[in-house]
Amino acid sequence: MGVVTVLTGEVRADGVSKAIDSTTLLLPTDVSADPGECVVLRGQNGSGKTTLLRIIGGLLAPSAGTATIGGREADERDRAVRAAVAGLLGAPTTYRDLTLIDHLVLIDSTWGGEPSTSDDRGTALLERLGIASLDDRFPHELSSGQEQLFRLAITFARPSSVLLLDEPEQRLDTTKRQIVGALIRERTSAGSTVVMACHDPEMTASLGDQVVDIKPAR
């Protein structure tokens, strides 16, 4: 399969915008984030925060402007970009016949974790998020809040230099938001770049090295 280029976590979005036909989803926006930084995207619902995150992650091509990861065009078809970026951007793919711990073991081993200890790392992550007792449940058996924590577990289980999070605080109480905030802070302290959309003022104040206000498209 060849050697995958290891990209650093510099995130650059220069004048990126998105329009489909006559509908503007995102006005021209700039984002600049370096390894170890957390940038919070703030704006009204419908302002284009999710669209911007998808452009930065290479899931959506901008109508104008450029987006790069580690100096490379943000394009999910590029193996190096896929390896660099972990994202919670909508509901992740899950499998009805795999338990929560099965999913985490699969992700860990797929992305280079030592298979013999994948179970331990998955269990530790579920413990951090307070859902270790649910490790043998299936995703469809979870409540709304539990499902959000599981989605976050899937995202954090991935090694990455860039972490993209779309409203990670959704459906979580104050205690769980603090736990998620601590995990995000650990990732930035380890050198990862985090770009996240967030409506929680406390999380924004405690985590954001920069705040980018997204203007409503209409």
Keywords, separated by commas or semicolons:
218 residues; alpha/beta; five-stranded parallel beta sheet; four-stranded antiparallel beta sheet; 7 helices; 33% helix; 24% strand; globular
Number of helices: 7
Q: What proportion strand?
A: 15-25%
Determine the mean pLDDT.
95
Structural class: alpha/beta
Low-confidence stretches: none
Subunit organisation of the chains: single chain
| Main sheet specs | 5 strands, parallel
- What is the element string, with H for helices and E for strands? EEEHEEHEHHHEHEHE
Q: Name the overall outline.
A: globular
Radius of gyration: 17 Å
Please give the number of β-strands: 9
Termini, distance in Å?
45 Å
Percent helix: 25-40%
Read across the widest sheet, the strand sequence of neighbours is 6-7-8-3-9
Question: Can you describe this structure?
Answer:
The structure is a single chain. This protein has 218 residues and is of the alpha/beta class. Helix content is 33%, strand content 24%. It has helices at residues 49-56, 79-84, 100-110, 118-128, 144-156, 174-189, 201-207; strands at residues 11-20, 23-33, 38-42, 64-69, 72-73, 85-88, 162-166, 193-197, 210-213. It has a five-stranded parallel β-sheet with strand order 6-7-8-3-9, with helices on both faces. A four-stranded antiparallel β-sheet has the order 2-1-4-5. A hairpin with a 2-residue loop joins strand 4 (64-69) and strand 5 (72-73). Helix 3 (100-110) packs across helix 4. The longest helix has 16 residues, at 174-189. The model has no long low-confidence stretch (mean pLDDT 95).
